[in-house]
Design a protein that fits this description.
By secondary structure, the chain is of the alpha+beta class. The chain folds into two domains: 49 residues; 189 residues. It contains two helices and ten strands. Helix 1 packs antiparallel against helix 2. The longest helix has 24 residues. The relative contact order is 0.23.
């Protein structure tokens, strides 16, 4: 009976650690299991090509936006029907806009340049934003107009495209990235991220809690420690 109890404890510990280790993988494929609880749902393309707040069909559809923090890292992601390379598009892709307190004031922008499947990101402390071009559904946080460059980094394999899962099962484009939180100012209890293209036909906004989530290695060490304590306790009982 004790052997069975110990086996169940081991299984429970490693299942718990496994859940804690489920951080998004930056691989250019927006996996909703990895982003579970930290992404916006795809509302799809409505009749006449309506994508909310404007019209544009699959080519202007924002499908998923993801935002997740651990104790040291911010993960962000986007899946859209819009060609994020900007190739063949009338309007340019926008920057990721970050609001560190979820108060409607987006203080940081993450610009990007895509080469093959690698992405170079540039973080800006924003002074002012360019609004989108279409006034009927204008978005005030499209692309940084004035700001100070803080940090630049490249992520390998962070861009992907193809027929991906979404409400319309259409051809989609994905950007994913991660950023060391030390590059940002103090975070509030909740942060927000927004993305749209130059025309503003569709907008993706996501919020997430900034409650500290231990890193996977820490959780694995902690879980293994719990299991080890249980084993030692069992051995002590046998020798008494």
């Amino acid at each position: 009976m004790k052997k069975i109890s110990l086996s169940f404890l081991a299984l429970a510990v490693f299942l718990w650690v496994g859940q804690a280790m489920a951080t998004p993988v930056v691989d250019g494929s927006f996996n909703t299991t990895e982003w579970a609880g930290h992404f916006t749902n795809d509302d799809g393309v409505g009749s006449g090509g309506f994508v909310d707040p404007g019209y544009g069909g699959q080519a202007y559809d924002v499908e998923y936006t993801g935002l997740y923090t651990t104790s040291t890292t911010l993960y962000f992601g986007l899946q859209a029907g819009y060609n994020l390379t900007g190739t063949g598009m009338t309007y340019a892709p926008g920057d990721f806009a970050l609001d560190l307190n979820n108060d409607g004031n987006f203080e940081y922008a993450i610009d990007f340049q895509i080469v093959d499947d690698d992405v170079t990101y540039t973080l800006y402390d924003v002074e002012s934003w360019k609004p989108t071009a279409i006034a009927n559904w204008q978005n005030d946080f499209f692309e940084v107009a004035e700001g100070t460059q803080i940090y630049q980094w490249t992520e390998t394999g962070a861009f992907g495209s193809g027929y991906m899962d979404d409400a319309d099962n259409g051809y989609s484009y994905v950007l994913e990235g991660s950023l060391d939180l030390s590059q940002l100012g103090p975070l509030g209890p909740e942060i927000a991220m927004q993305w749209t293209m130059g025309c503003g036909n569709d907008v993706g906004t996501v919020t997430t809690s900034t409650a500290p989530v231990p890193e996977p290695a820490t959780m694995l060490l902690f879980g293994t420690g719990l299991l080890g304590m249980a084993v030692i306790g069992r051995k002590r009982k046998k020798t008494v």
